[in-house]
Amino acid sequence: MQAFGCRWFTALGTGLGLVFGLHGLASGEPPFPAGPVKIVVGFGAGGAPDTAARLLATGLSRRWSQPVVVENQVGASGTLAAASVARAKPDGSTLLFGVAANLSVAPAVMRQPPYDPVKSFTPVAEVARSAYVWLVRADAPVATMPEFIAWARREPGKLNYGSPGQGTQHHLATELMKRNEGVFMVHVPYRVAAYQGLLAGDIQGMLESLPAPLALIDSGRVRALAVTGPARLPGLPQVPTFQEQGLHELDVAAWWGVVGPAGLSEAVVARLHADIRAVLAESETRGALTRGGIELAHGTPEDFGAHIAREWQRWREVALQRELSSD
Known about the structure:
Blueprint: H1 7-26, E1 37-41, H2 48-64, E2 68-72, H3 79-86, E3 94-99, H4 100-109, E4 121-137, H5 145-154, E5 160-163, H6 169-181, E6 186-189, H7 195-200, E7 205-209, H8 214-219, E8 222-227, E9 253-261, H9 266-281, H10 283-290, E10 294-296, H11 301-321
Helix pairs in contact: 1-9, 2-9, 4-11
């Protein structure tokens, strides 16, 4: 994954934005944006998705000379927010800053999801991805991921792992790891991040996406045993991947992106995509987002749509195999 930092990319984004803005006028479509734009986030203020959405909103507002506001609609793993955007008018004035949770994982495990993550939205731009890291308490009797797996195999059902809730990507990714490595651990869901359970000794391990756990790792209160994905992270160069340690590769990442309601016009999508890319190329935005292991994404709206569809199908298969479902 590479960051968007080249000057030509900013220039290209600006040029495309102008071209497609003129195209919209020529075809009788009103210029975009003609008024305020709302970006809906399904999680609380101050978290990583909210912070990224606000950085994006600030940059877009500056480019458009229009208000771009972030609205937090919290609940049900972000599906309340996603459902509200799916019902919105497809004119580009209401967008979703979607994440893996509400665009693939939650709809995969819900018996009756309130929307179809492929048919209910128009993909606009993937924004960023970040790896997950497996954490244990600093005094855990293991120093590597293979040692942790061996511990779990010696004591099947006696080790607990935590997640932010049933049906979250943290939960399903750990179930995938359990299947890959042939171990049995007990899932302990928390309403928020499971750090307190880990520090208290109530759970023995957990997956968490970056950059959230970096402060605890740096303080020495927890230890990182492995990172997901094919390569080590620049921010945690001392932590090997799962595959590097002789385990199955755990190809799981947190990801964020912008979608609109189904039926968004090609001209509006093109303008949004170009301007989002231009904002991400700005040094201030890029620097704020890439600190702590987050990598800026790239690709077309079609690429992002295909990624959403693949991830949704992938987690549906895991949920079916592990007999996981939620209301």
